[in-house]
Design brief:
The structure is a homotetramer. By secondary structure, chain A is of the alpha/beta class. The first copy, chain A, has helices spanning 11-23, 50-53, 106-117, 143-156, 170-176, 190-196, 213-225, 253-260, 269-273, 276-288, 315-331; strands spanning 2-6, 27-32, 36-42, 58-62, 82-84, 87-89, 95-99, 123-125, 159-164, 179-182, 203-206, 231-235, 265-267, 293-297. The first copy, chain A, has two domains: 2-62, Phospho-2-dehydro-3-deoxyheptonate aldolase, domain 1 (Alpha-Beta Plaits); 82-331, TIM Barrel, CATH 3.20.20. In chain A, helix 4 (143-156) links the parallel strand 8 (123-125) and strand 9. Chains in contact: A-B, A-C, A-D, B-C, B-D, C-D.
Chain lengths: 337, 337, 337, 337
């Protein structure tokens, strides 16, 4: 931590800062410049920089110790690759996950999956428990939905990714699910994250609507600190003043996170834009930016979907997109199977 | 719902929209103007407006049915007043809650409360379970903290408000706590909200960092739909591009919410600004804007606080503030006891 | 400037950073800690910190020199008080400015002003040149509007504040106007600011819709660097994700700016909320937060206003508000005449 | 315009709304539904919807008339293609503009351009007048810079794009410049836009930092209403809570604007990210999303650049990027020369 003071600070003020730094268990080193005095607090403890900002004469306090460690490139320089059912996320691989927004019925999942099989999909998605803004909106069909996903997946040799919304569901999910998905609203549900740190299955951690890159990595740190390193980060749009699209998909997150962390980063263009005709261009853009995969909503009959039909692709649109991104991927050094 | 089309839309496009509206169970009425054709979908069902936005010729779709009902002024025109230990929130009353950010020890709570008693505090606050961005930060002392709060409160005849962070804690909290607080990060933890709808104690529902007024009211609707109408909304700052303050305290929320809803609205200037010397002016401003109460962090020794000391008031600062807001309240038709 | 490196940085990397710092004309001092190496660049030059962020081994670069000087408390510790026609902004004084959004006609200004005289208004406002989002919206009546403002003001012994939108208008404005107002959209029209630095009349500088406190002060610095120290900063709301109100009025700006700078800060609750019934509570809140004045839209007949009638107060509402804020001001150590 | 009232509104309230609508020159048509009453205001006048929002019984007012016309697809369905020096922006073409952030000297421009010629650059960029946040930062070398750009461009048969920051510069710019660039800070400098509507040269209109898509199109409307249809829209990042990157590049703007408007949309990844190593991935992403061109900062020696060197590419990086986007473009139906 660095405590910056005006050059005009007097000796009593400097001594007071030094005392406060030492009281928190750090060693203090004073360095005087032309315009500023910088006092370094040497040590590795966590502290609240605002405690020092309020001291007389202090103009700024700068925290140097990041609050995430295991998720950083400094901790592990090579890319983490998460593999599920032969699909790889990370390194030179971009993995694909597709399926309906919500599980509605066996037939709906089966019909949709039959279409997706034409395009080599190996991991399917679908929500059984839906966190909805309104208490009067469709909330998902629950455990029945998990059973349907598992059953269809087993029929065709596929893996299942689905969203968990409460810590009490972990045991149930272990029976049916291959990849646990933590939604944007739960990105800072720390108790849930801690528990997911103890399981041995991959976790997709979506970015919160108003979460910074650093907060996102700190949430991943909760999982990793528990021993589970199979984490896939998922950019799905942030909230801004622009309301034309459902969210603002922040594709710069891809190169930024891949520089800071060894974890794979995928993109959800369906929630990121909220409109079907924006899903294709943003999927291509995400691949061109170097992401490690996509999770895309596809429905065999979007016009009748119970949830988010408007952002779900028709199967043939997915097929067209699949052809396009397979061509773009090698240009940026990636492979899509 | 209103589906707006360009005046240039042809009959086939109009017929298609009408068919789609009817397929969702609405009655359709077409009204043609100079520049626009407006098709009203009559009925009270919930639907996803984006399903219609993608139809050819459609320029805009407008949802008229609000997704919250019980929380609106239309449902209940008179102010809801929540009363706890003689302190009233709502109507002509502004209630005060004060105490440390986190419970650290019996002595810390006791010392702080002894100071607060000088200023007529009847409801104390303090966190036993702390949701922290970093897994390496102080996470609270757990149930022990609830016991301390209860014990100190009972000694002095006070009520206790504290934050619940997981659905599994409800039974435990029922033993110790008078007001359940739902933090900003849990504003859309819908399972938790549903459960809190079944208890018979007041709930403070903080606004999420990036939540709109409407989403906030919909979350309150989850609680109220379960049968619990004792809800206190709490503005605590939203996330914006400005980073000098911890959050941007949105005081316009007070008159806006009080027009839309009958529920009381209080303000948390401590989290809303994150810095002690901004808590006083923003508390006064909140009262002048007509809020129904304040929840303020006070610590008998903020310099040694384990959590958020920088935003905690010294007891005598609280006393000064108490005098000021007691004078401002009657000017805006409010009473502070 | 401080360049922070990982403790794992090797000697070649450190030497490279030192060389780069020296190449930009600074002196470099290396300080090694447990987790980080901090290299201070001593000197007062401005530089682009990103030039150092990209060097191998560097994790962060921190700029210490603020880019504004004359506007800081460090440069001038006592409050600047701007006085116009006996009305003071700053120090222990909160000044009031009121009038219609746009000048429509002599009669409209005269009728409105006659109402305002009942409440001791000494400075009137009104736009003659209106920056409008749409080219098809009412753009103001131009110089004719300035003449009307001057004429009415002279009749009653008042001062005039109005918005300038282009550098070419300065000479014309000098003939009619007592306070130049720079709108939010022009906060970074640097050529205009430079010119306003050379005049001898007060300037109201509104905060840009997405401007940080620091950018705002830097814009004021442009004016002050030219020799004109009569600057009144005006908070008028920022753009956020919340769209219910026209803007999000950021009242924390008041205590923040008053700590950083000696310049007075006033508030425009009319643009800050965009709705008449929110203007009163937010005006009271602004005064309670310690602002140095208000600029409020009032129209003798808002229902027929050509521009922003919906956010204009009726004269009697202004009268009511005037009584309330006169009572609140002394509680926070301020005087309103 | 549609005025929505609660079904519980009484006849007097309805009559009052009808009267108000008619007073503004519209025809009113009342349509009663189960939950809401919708009153359509038929007519093509512009009005302020807030005037109706405040009437008793009204819950919402919806404006249907867009404030931009000439820039819409409804006005002109085929793509506008802007061509400069053989480079096309729009339709099946993606055009490229490259050059240094600021003009520093003849040698600097010449050296940089010589490098760019290797990659078929036909339009160069470079700032002579720089709008800078701080009055103490480098402000550009002025007209001398324009002369340098013109001279180097003529030597090699190139076209010049550069930023105009004040209306008084138009005549001077006409002598030297092929494409006028309006920066983000001037997107709502309406007097400047009006004047640019009267010239016969293309204008690049950058999106403001906090401007919605609709405001951006309305600013383009100012230019087009004056008779100049050669407009190139440029997405360059918006301001959000995320501060790691300089701005948040909103690539969804590409498909959104291309649906709403016939005007070409290009992307500035240099300002959009602010860091060199993010420029490449975001450039590829922009092309993959279907943009009509890129404007990229390249400097022959970025380490010594006077302005924004950190976001400028090395020439060989540009060459590498050029190869990549030439491969991506045809996959999305675009051609890069």
């Amino acid at each position: 931590m660095l405590v910056v003071m005006n050059a005009s600070a007097d000796e009593a003020q400097i001594a007071n800062v030094v005392k406060s730094i030492e009281a928190k268990g750090f060693e203090a080193r004073v360095s005087k410049g032309e315009l500023k005095i910088v006092i370094s607090a040497i040590g590795s403890k966590l502290t609240d920089k605002r405690d020092f900002e309020l001291l007389p004469g202090v103009t700024e306090v700068i925290q140097l110790t990041t609050n995430y460690k295991l998720t950083t490139r400094a901790f592990k320089s090579e890319d983490t690759i998460v593999e599920v059912n032969g699909v790889k996320f990370g390194g030179k691989h971009a993995g694909l996950i597709a399926g309906p927004c919500a599980v509605e019925s066996y037939e709906q999942v089966d019909e949709t999956v039959k279409e997706l099989l034409k395009y080599n999909v190996k991991v399917i998605r679908g929500g059984a428990f839906k966190p909805r803004t309104s208490p009067y909106a469709f909330q998902g069909i629950g455990e029945e939905g998990l059973k349907i996903l598992r059953s269809v997946a087993d029929n065709y040799g596929l893996a299942v990714a689905t969203e968990i919304i409460d810590i009490s569901q972990i045991d149930m999910f272990m029976k049916y699910v291959d990849i646990f998905q933590v939604g944007a609203r739960n990105m800072q549900n720390f108790n849930l994250l801690k528990e997911l740190g103890t399981i041995h299955k991959p976790v997709i951690l979506k970015r919160g609507l108003s979460s910074t890159y650093e907060e996102w990595l700190q949430s991943a740190e909760y999982i990793m600190a528990g021993g589970n390193g199979q984490i896939i980060l998922c950019e799905r749009g942030i909230r801004t003043f622009e309301t034309y699209t459902r969210n603002t998909l922040d594709l710069a997150a891809i190169p930024v996170i891949k520089k800071l962390s060894h974890l794979p980063v995928i993109v959800d263009p369906s929630h990121g834009t909220g409109l079907r005709d924006k899903v294709e261009p943003m999927s291509r853009a995400a691949i061109a930016a170097g992401c490690d995969g996509l999770i895309i909503e596809v429905h065999y009959n979007p016009d009748c979907a119970l949830c988010d039909g408007a952002q779900s692709l028709y199967p043939e649109q997915y097929g067209q997109l699949y052809q396009e991104i397979k061509q773009i991927a090698p240009i940026v050094g990636k492979e899509i199977i």
